[in-house]
Amino acid sequence: MDNSLKGRVALVTGGTKGIGKAIADRLSSEGCKVVVTARTEPKENPNGHYFIASDLTQPESAESIAKEILTTFGRIDIIVNNAGANLSPGGGFSTLSDEHWITDWQLNFLSVVRINKALLPVMIEQKSGVIINISTGAAKQPIWEMTMSYSSAKAALNIYSKALANELGAKGVRVNVVSPGVVKTPLMLEFIENLAKSSNIKVDDAFKAVMDKVGAPLGRMADPEEIANLVAFLVSPEAKYITGINYSVDGGALPVV
């Protein structure tokens, strides 16, 4: 993209591992000044991303993140709301407590709403900015025994993102969604291991069960870099007429067009 992102300030939540790290590293390689958040600072940070420790399930975290970014850099050009996780146990509705539902919605939906609300006034004042909300294919294809509360929170994120894109288009701010399928991340591998333990089956069998449920024709997990490639394009000027779209990166798993 010929360094079209050089000098842009980008925030990537959950940016120290998995998909978030791949996105942060890719944006950095394109010339962005990258800010990443996570609960704990990584032991290694070879690309020198600016780190802010934060627990996004806490309502006050968004304002403190926004204040530090604007104090340090004076602007924000790109927000990638990547932080999220399927934290609840499998087994369907009867296994989910109020706490499970609240935790999944705090992390996967409300944290995004808060981050955007805290930083959007600056983008609107600049008359420019891009927001990418990372969702999941499970928001369209929920797996009741694995992702019920997580899927519902991400489905809300999809609707919110479309509404936000409609509101902000005339103000120079674009909003899009990227919905990965099964991605080879530490969190996904941990999820499969936990599924194997809870189901009393081998890890290989748990992986096969997940892939059978997802039904991706490509027959494999995505690499985090494959998600990052799309995000890097969508935040670039080359995508300046694209807003309000939800992109599936799922190896063909979604059974409709």
From TrEMBL:
Family indicated by similarity: Belongs to the short-chain dehydrogenases/reductases (SDR) family.
Record protein name field: Short-chain dehydrogenase
Taxonomic lineage of the native organism: Bacteria, Pseudomonadati, Bacteroidota, Chitinophagia, Chitinophagales
UniProt-listed PANTHER family: 3-OXOACYL-(ACYL-CARRIER-PROTEIN) REDUCTASE, NADPH-DEPENDENT REDUCTASE BACG
InterPro entries: NAD(P)-bd_dom_sf (IPR036291), SDR (IPR050259), SDR_fam (IPR002347)
Pfam families: adh_short_C2
